[in-house]
Specification:
64% of the residues lie in helices and 11% in strands. By secondary structure, the chain is mainly α. It holds the Pfam family DUF6164.
Length: 121
Amino acid sequence: MSKLLMNLRNVPDDEADDVRAMLDQRRIAYYETKPSRWGISFGGIWVTEASDFAEAKRLMAIYQAGRQQRARDEHESAKRAGTAETFWSVLRNDPVRVVLTMLGIVFMLALLALPVMLLRG
C-alpha cells in the first residue's frame, strides 16, 4: 500500500526535484499526485512499496537536515553582508502590502474582540 512521503503544499520546485532525484537514485518506487483544480488537495509524493517507506523517511530526514543547515548558513551570510530581509526593508520595498497586512490584522483582532464588547455593554 502506498504511503505519503511528502505533501507538496508550499514546497519549492527545487526541493521537490531534489526529493524525486533522491528517490530515483536509491531506486525507490514512487508516484506523484497533482494538485486539485480548486486547491483542496495540493498533491504529494507517494512511496509505492510499504517496505521502502522507512528508508525513504530516513533519507528525507537526512535531506531536510542538510537543506535546513544550508538555509541557515545562507541566512547568516546574508545577515553578515547586510542583505538579509528585515521588516524595515520589506516596508521600504513594498509599503502597500505591509500596511494592508497590518490593517487586516487589526480588523481580525477587532472581529475577535467584538463579541466581548457586545456582551459587556
